[in-house]
Amino acid sequence: MENERLILTEEWDKTFPKSEKVNHRKITFHNRYGITLAADLYEPKNAEGKLPAIAVCGPFGAVKEQSSGLYAQTLAERGFLTIAFDPSFTGESGGQPKYVASPDINTEDFSAAVDFLSVQDNVDSERIGILGICGWGGMAINAAAIDTRIKATVASTMYDMTRVNARGYFDSMDEDSRYEQRKILNAQRTEDYKSGSYQLGGGVVDPLPEDAPFYVKDYYDYYKTNRGYHKRSLNSNGGWNTTSALSFMNMPILQYSDEIRSAVLVIHGEKAHSRYFSEDAFRNLKGDNKELLIIPNAVHTDLYDCVDIIPFDKLESFYYEYLK
User: Fold this and answer.
1) What digits encode the pLDDT tens for the residues 58-111?
2) What is the number of H-type helices and E-type strands within the chain?
């Protein structure tokens, strides 16, 4: 199978400064559905031999030029070969239509990244880990449950996107609410088919209402300001296709997370509105190689890009312990 030819920007257009400690280049790889994914590859300068490797993705609705790239570059500074990739249908990656998400395909994207890393001459194929941020934290745990090549997994400020779509925030939706939501979304499917296009659900709300919940304000502060805005980011702009929510409502992930035998580190902010996702996911994990780390006073988006809050020392020691 050949990779689709993608148009990739060559300029440094990240939301974080370029490190002089690593080499950077663009790469592409494909998943088993034939979709070609775009990624940034970071490797330590002057590295020799076969390196441990980590694939990074997230947050949900972000692109590799935002949080995932920051994580990947920082871990490369610490001795890992890393890639930060755009999921299928988003950013510079392929797949049509654009701006659609899938719990199956997006879990597969992580395994496709492992495919790519496994065959690189400078990667030790027995020392590969993954890292998912926000909604891709859930995808990462789901990938670890199916892909035995993954030796260590980190879920940072995790969302279970299937749970939040099916049940709402804090599990506030009941069966009747879900039924009404399904009616709305399926009516939109009809309209989309008539028009030959897909309605976008909208990114982070803008302008920001004064009475918005604190976590919406946090999202705004990241996605809509110079701190984290990117022109290809769904959350910074028009958002996902509205009907993307349908598959997430009906196909829950994490069903077999209790069977993960490899190491998992779950990280969340103490004051994050989403903390319960990580705590509940961790509660289902088994084995003495599983750990939950709560960061004092941190909110959800602090773990996107606040380098003085993201526990990179812990990430480094965790990966070196289990990618050995």
Assistant:
1) 999 999 999 999 999 999 999 999 999 999 999 999 999 999 999 999 999 999
2) 10, 8
Average pLDDT over residues 212-234: 97
The predicted pLDDT at position 168 comes to 96
The label of the residue with tokens 């280049």 reads 25
Q: Which residues pair with 81 in a beta bridge?
A: 53
Q: Angle 311-153-302 (CA atoms, 0-180°, nearest 5)?
A: 35
Do 70 and 42 contact (CB within 8 A), yes or no? no
Structure tokens at 114: 């492992």
> Among candidates 257, 269, 277, 266, which has minimal Cα distance to 309?
269
Quick one: which H or E segment has residue 77?
helix 67-77
DSSP state at residue 30 = E
Element (H, E) at 222: helix 214-223
What is the distance between the alpha carbons of residues 138 and 305, in angstroms, rounded to a whole number? 19
Q: How many CB atoms lie within 10 A of CB 120?
A: 18
pLDDT tens, residue by residue, 22-58: 999 999 999 999 999 999 999 999 999 999 999 999 9
Query: Residue 197 pLDDT more than 90?
Result: yes
59 upstream amide cis, omega within 30 of 0 = yes
Tokens standing for 243? Answer: 């009907």
Buried b (16+ CB within 10 A) or exposed e, 151-173: bbbbbbbbbbbbbbbbbeeeeeb
The phi-psi region of residue 239 (left if phi > 0; otherwise alpha if psi is between -120 and 50; otherwise beta) is left
Count of CB atoms situated within 10 Å of the CB of 84: 31
